[in-house]
Amino acid sequence: MNYLPFQKGFKTYLQLERGLSENTLAAYLHDVALLFDFLSEQREGKSLTKVTYDDLKDFIAFINQIGLGPYSQARIISGIRAFFKYLDLENIIETDPSELLESPKLGRKLPDVLDITEIDSIINTIDLSLPEGQRNRAIIETLYGCGLRVSELVNLKISELFFNEGIISVTGKGNKQRLVPIGDEAKKHILLYLQHNRIKITPSKGNEDILFLNRRGGKLSRQMIFIMIKNLVEKAGIHKKISPHTFRHSFATHLVQNGADLRAVQDLLGHASIITTEIYTHLNREDLRKAILRFHPRNKE
């Protein structure tokens, strides 16, 4: 069976009706492609109208056998459910075989968080004498000071900086915009970068308004930010699993630890659900648990 028209229709549905980010869209299409491969190779190209719950159970067993972990499996199941929901909405299938699919049980994984000393240590490793030094300092200050996702950072525009009002406009997942306060340190180092470094770079076509540019005037990639942070962390001698997202986690954790309202943190992070933000209360409780184990007299030998 030729599954390509269904994949194209699903892509259009995700773009127009779900408003998903490019990364999520690509992940869903990859998940559906895995299912198509399975149906072609192990179900002799079975028609989508005849796919059953048992077929999907066997597909889940298949992705488990090829070594995908529970988080990857859960994401794939989410993509498959979305696909069959689309088929149902388009009246391509009469019943949705994915309704009873169960995702693997996932423990709530607490992300690594940097403390203030570690963040200062990373910042202090930046060589400001290098052409990209001030830019990198501004990037770290913005990631930590505003709690941005890396995709939000690389797409941040000069026209979205409202320093007189003390805020920036951020375009997040699903092209949703939010206003985020910007602190003095982030503002200071962005201005230094604009005045002394970016002014020397000729932006490439289409990137005239992009804030952070590479040497050729192009927009920075997510990978470039990852590599830059990896190098800084190694220089700082920090042995945690650190990524650009770690600064976002640290931003939120430090706010919650210092008494910020969880709803306010949800708005700052651009979380659609308060449930996502609640992980930072768990981080705080984990700190308390460690403190009890370390300092309570009944836990001392």
Structure in words:
This protein is elongated. A hairpin with a 5-residue loop joins strand 2 (167-171) and strand 3. It is mainly alpha-helical and 301 residues long. The protein has helices at 4-18, 22-42, 53-65, 70-89, 116-124, 133-146, 150-154, 184-196, 222-236, 244-257, 262-269, 274-277, 279-295, and strands at residues 161-162, 167-171, 177-181. A three-stranded antiparallel β-sheet has the order 1-2-3. It contains 13 helices and three strands. The relative contact order is 0.09.
What are its keywords?
301 residues; DNA polymerase, domain 1; 2 domains; three-stranded antiparallel sheet; elongated; 4% strand
Task: Give the topology.
Elements: H1 4-18, H2 22-42, H3 53-65, H4 70-89, H5 116-124, H6 133-146, H7 150-154, E1 161-162, E2 167-171, E3 177-181, H8 184-196, H9 222-236, H10 244-257, H11 262-269, H12 274-277, H13 279-295
Antiparallel strand pairs: 1-2, 2-3
Helix pairs in contact: 1-2, 2-4, 5-9, 6-8, 6-10, 10-13
Number of strands: 3
Query: Fraction of residues in helices?
Result: 55-70%
**General shape:** elongated
Walk across the major sheet and give the strand order: 1-2-3
Unreliable sequence segments: none
Largest sheet: 3 strands, antiparallel
Mean pLDDT: 85
What is the third-level CATH name, the topology of the largest domain?
hpI Integrase, Chain A
At CATH level 2, the architecture of the largest domain is Orthogonal Bundle
What is the H/E order?
HHHHHHHEEEHHHHHH
